[in-house]
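Homework-ish question, so no full write-ups if that breaks the rules, but can someone show me the predicted structure for this set?
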Amino acid sequence: MRREQNTAPRLRVLPALALSLALLAVVVTASLAFGAGGVGPERALGALFGSGDDEAHFVVTGLRLPRTLAGIVVGSALGIAGAVLQTAARNPLAEPGLLGVSAGASFAVVVSIALGASAATLYAPVAIIGALLGCVFALGAARLRGVGDDPIRLVLAGVALSSMLGSVSSLVLLIDQRTRDEIRFWTIGALAGRNIPTIVTILPTVVLGIAIVLLLIRPLAALSLGDQVARSLGHRVRMTRIGAMLGVALLVGSATAVSGPIGFVGLVVPFAARALVGPDIRRVVPICAVLGPALILVADVLARMLVRPSEMPLGVVTAFVGAPVLVAVVRAQRLPAL
Amino acid sequence: MSRYPGRRWLALILVMVSLLALVAAACGEATDVEPQGQTATEAPASSTDATDATPASETPAATASATERADNDSDAAGTRSVETAFGTIEIPANPQRIVTIGDTPLDVAVSLGFSPVGATSSRGATGVAAYMAEHVGDIQIIGTIAEPNLESIVQLEPDLILTETTLQEAMYENLSKIAPTLVPIIPEGANRYDPMVLTRAYAQALGMTDRADELADELEARIAEVREKVGDRSGQTAVVIRWMAQGPMVMNGHLVTGQMLSEIGFTLPELAYEIEGGHSDVLSLENLAEIDTDWIFIATLNQDGQQALEAARQQPAFERLKANQANQVVTVNGQLWSSANGPLAATAILADIEQALAQ
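A: Not a homework solution, just the prediction itself:
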């Protein structure tokens, strides 16, 4: 594939950020105004400004608001994780799911349900532990000489791990039909029914993940110049990669704990961000933090409106939205240089 | 390679042994496997009636077709000619070894007085449904409803296989080679979820319509009894749901649970009757008004009803439901309340309703 050497950003960061924030504001409003039920935009917005009826008030503050907040946290985490992973792996098609992190979280939830828990209680801590275990395996692979230094082999190790965990999950679900019954809705990914306590549970790990990413932001930026150049600038390449993966695991694990596995966000959002501000990760991360929620919430609103009175699972809608974008970008052969 | 001649021989020997083992397994007799609670039957003896003119399965591995029975005309000694969904077949007049595929056939067979030798496991369980367990004793489980284990069925040497009305043709072809397979026809317009409709369909095929009438009377009597115990519910609404994290799934009102609740006097929401299949899609939490009934029955598949209830209560939208506020939410066994059908199931559901309401 031809890669354009694109060193000059298209926009400066602040205008891009302002644009993204404006988009996010519009989307958040839509998320509060629209839903699968009978509370339409007028009543919802009325409730926001204090004049709505009781039902509208409950729907907006009790149902749509927690859901919107969950969407913001999940979108932000997945967007940032995607950008970091693509820079650390030097692979513009790298996705957090590829690392085996989402698979680890799913597997942990499957096992916990098979052991007697109920999917309705959404074991957030379990999913985070599963994601971190997936991360530990990937880190173990990264410490192997020849794998950790080669981004492609790193991704391959992650794919192997995902496949293994996925097949063991399938085995458990084949044997335990009760578990399969409970988890079949969780594995597609959704924001419906997520409430504030769940979000609060994972907020510390999300913040920790972002903190790690911010600490590593300069080494990561150097990494995109190539391993040799980064080393000669004084950065520790391997530790940077490992640290980046830890941050990614925390972010993706927390997001998966809230919403179940959701794909394409970690792929599409960094693309869009790079199209706006160029490939420098120091510029891309803030944009991803805002565009990620925007994408998730747009998908969520569509999920609510398309099959009323039911809702589509979010993972399905993000795939519909994300896959064509991915195809278009790849076909246009304008993969930005990392 | 020639540096290790010993290894080549070893490899060759291993391959030969494996091939031999494979061949032995393929041709293996089944006599060393005993069905639970039954002694293994040796080769030629089939345990059908002495009056049965033709022994159906001479060897354990027989694949004799049911149509090889003598007399395809009506009731010569030992067989009956019945109409099934796949055409007219001959079944034994007095079947001794029945295998059932599906929960409902098992329920009906036991209600009519038979003791099946084999049954499929219930959905979501490793054995028969919990409410059936005490009625069947030791019964051989021969696979799941979706994938019955044909070899296990053959080992049991059945003389009749009872299945649900929804059996696929491919599976029917296989089953009918083992034993006559009865796939009943539901009369046009009848509610296929009505336990007595199914019972009568089987009873007619087996020539036991009297017993079916008895069962219908018993069920009516039981309904009247429960109706008296729980009092007049004619003004009240109820719904049966499964609660998932994203929202509730409403159970089809035509199921036997819906019928029993209606008989007791409850009215179910319209949504429950508009569903195709066993249950609706997951309803959005914003639309809980559809299930805001006086009584809510939550069907859970794991035993922890209490856990499921608490999980549901974590949703503020659920908290607001009037059934929850009035403490009229009941957790019930999902196996029984969402997929079972038959006279025994109806009786068990009535018992649950009585227990929940007569307080």
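Now go work out the reasoning yourself. Hint: Residues 5-26 of chain B form the longest helix (22 residues).
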